[in-house]
Amino acid sequence: MKSNDLFKGKRILVLGLAKSGEAAARLLHKLGAFVVVNDAKPYEENEQAKELEELGIEVVCGHHPLSLLEEKLDLIVKNPGIPYSNPIIHEAIHRGLSVVTEVEIASLISEAEIVAITGSNGKTTTTTLIYEMVKNSKREPLIAGNIGTVACEVAEKAKSNQVMVLEVSSFQLIGTEQFKPKVSVFLNLFDAHLDYHGTKEEYSLAKAKITANQSKEDYLVYNIDDPTVCKIANESRASLIPFSVKQKLTKGFWIQEGSIYYNDQPIISLDSIVLPGAHNLENILAAMGAAITLGARLPQIEHVLQTFSGVEHRLQFVTEYKDRRFYNDSKATNILASQKALEAFEQPIVLLAGGLDRGNDFDELLPSLNNVKALITFGETKEKLAKTATEANVETIVYADGMEEAVLAAFEHSDAGDVILLSPACASWDQYRTFEERGRRFVDAVKNLETTLQS
């Protein structure tokens, strides 16, 4: 951790606990700041707040009183999940107070250089690939952010001979001011989280912050096939490393005649890759761009491509039962992610989908439903998804109340040789706390299917 007095003696309000808020509060307290923590959960039920109070940190629980702004504040660190429409955030910005997320704090105190990965889809897979590819190189990778340990906790212990591989969301990036990764990776941009950002333009502006402070000495690995990403890259001051799965490039990473090319030279055969799905080629090219920039060796990269078969909840193969193959893609929390999952298979698909209603329809999913023989739908969006499936001439549409019922219905409407795919196209929060919980419920239901069928 960099030794500095950046936060010493400063009065800082941490809004919202969860993992990131607690980590930020502990770190700032250790760095000599006067920290006040404000969390919506009542004090009596709030073990995190009680632990922080024992450290000498002031806690205010149960609501977000505007009176907290009456004390002179130097900074507000906001939990990414708290929307900017929240009255205390809205008023703080109106008063000209600086409001950041904990990744900003992490970036300011980290001795290790940061490679930051963002995009609407593929972040977790790409982050994991980079982490694995950089292993056994000159610098030890540390994984952080949405995929691993909170960024503050990793940054506090990181050394200059290491590199922090950080998955960052738009929720985190919007709350950055000086965030400056050595390497940024921008995968794609799709209409997502509009309930939080309001418009795609605001969502795009939040994502663009990943490269906003980069200079010529830094690098931006970007998807040249995505027009919005391309526009952001063209406005960046970083050194650009493009990748493409659609076109030949004179610089960067691209595909031709069964090989991955780097700067006009074939370096790895596509036959080396075991990760399923054409969409994962984008993630692989992006990861290679970042890894090689960070000094990863080609044999290590090839080893990863020969052995890495995916991450949990992202097109994760669960099992084969009675000649049906089950896949858990619970991390597909938007339409584009589900489109890519559906396009990864040639076999007939029984699709399990549905979840939180963010106000969008599912017309964009229509072209990807050609191979879907049955839809098992649940959650707040089940009527909308059923409407889209009807328009796509999906033969069978079934409503389910829970994951166990959905898995059983999926099996009953499948045949030998089919793929049974959980790819919800929606966030999980209407029924489950996280997409991980939803995915685990699916996996458990699949593993218990034989018992369920016999009962």
Care to describe what's here?
Helices cover 33% and strands 21% of the residues. The protein has 455 residues and is α/β, with parallel strands linked by helices. It folds into three domains: 11-100, Rossmann fold, CATH 3.40.50.720; 103-307, UDP-N-acetylmuramoyl-L-alanine:D-glutamate ligase (3-Layer(aba) Sandwich); 316-449, Mur ligase, C-terminal domain (Protein-Tyrosine Phosphatase, Chain A). A six-stranded parallel beta sheet has the order 7-8-6-9-10-11, sandwiched between helices. Strands 15-16-20-17-18-19 form a six-stranded mixed beta sheet, sandwiched between helices. Strands 3-2-1-4-5 form a five-stranded parallel beta sheet. Helix 1 (18-30) packs parallel to helix 6 and helix 5 packs parallel to helix 11. The radius of gyration is 23 Å and the shape is globular. The model has no long low-confidence stretch (mean pLDDT 93).
